[in-house]
Amino acid sequence: MRTIPYWYFNRTQWAGLPDAAPGTLKKSELIRLKRVNADLSMQEVVEIYLPLARLIHCYITSNLKREMVLKKCFGANSKKIPYIISIAGGVSVGKSTTARILQVLLSRWPVYQYVELIATDGFLYPNSILTERGLIKEKGFPSSYDISRLVKFVSDLKSGVSQVQAPVYSHLIYDIVPSYHKTIRYPDILILEGLNVLQRDTNYSDNYHEIFISDFVDFSIYIDAPNELLKNWYTNRFLKFCRNSYINPSSFFHDYTKLSSREVMLIANNTWNEINYRNLRENILPTRKYANLIMTKTYNHAISLVRLKKEQN
């Protein structure tokens, strides 16, 4: 069995990487991001996410130089091709927060005027189709996604298509938003976050045979955490959704407000054990080895270890 070679960085080592960033987050930007993750601190941004943004900037710069050589040698077309970053990890690990922080930090470089963020949740099949196919209790599993549509989306971006559209998922209604799409036009960077972005299982590639999302990704990140922390973060988020649904009858979680706290906690625990943890164990965690960079979290979503793969894809 081949051992994957990594550079290992503890928190102090990672925070001490050379500084080449144009600035950090403003307080107002941090407050906005904290609405998504209350545990996020300015210290975490400075010590963890700024070095990550610098590293990605270095990879993008190297990639642009390579593209210039190829254009000079082969006369390749001059269409604007985005640099694609993927962020994977289990449910509730903080993929969305990481993606939003990177979006803000990378936008600080003048060369990246348009940094777009897309969640693969939008490529889930609608609940009606999942119910029809008997997959509603496997929502988030690879089979619950329209992988062909997602692969075509990233393929079109990498082919220089001028305008692509992505479906949108709403956590409020717990379903795809009908007749609504997000339109993307020539981004400099696209951040793609989701459970399935590192999947390489031929059973779910449909019409694309052995073409996967990861084939179009330039730099991939996996956010890791122990199961007990993931479960705790998930149940806390579940309870938060239930509390917030009191004031919004259209929320998927509104019916849970009629239950006792004990009953709601039981549902959250069962959902984690029977769906999310099983998906993590069977489908998500096995893809960790494909990531270029692995960030391991500890309590309060703080990063304790960073592993950077020496042999890049």
From TrEMBL:
It comes from the Bacteria. Its main location: cytoplasm. Residues 84-234 form the Phosphoribulokinase/uridine kinase domain. GO terms for molecular function: ATP binding; pantothenate kinase activity. This is Pantothenate kinase. GO terms for biological process: coenzyme A biosynthetic process. GO terms for cellular component: cytoplasm. It is found in: Cytoplasm. Signal peptide: none annotated. Pathway: Cofactor biosynthesis; coenzyme A biosynthesis; CoA from (R)-pantothenate: step 1/5. Belongs to the prokaryotic pantothenate kinase family. The gene is coaA. The keyword Metal-binding does not apply. It comes from Candidatus Erwinia haradaeae.
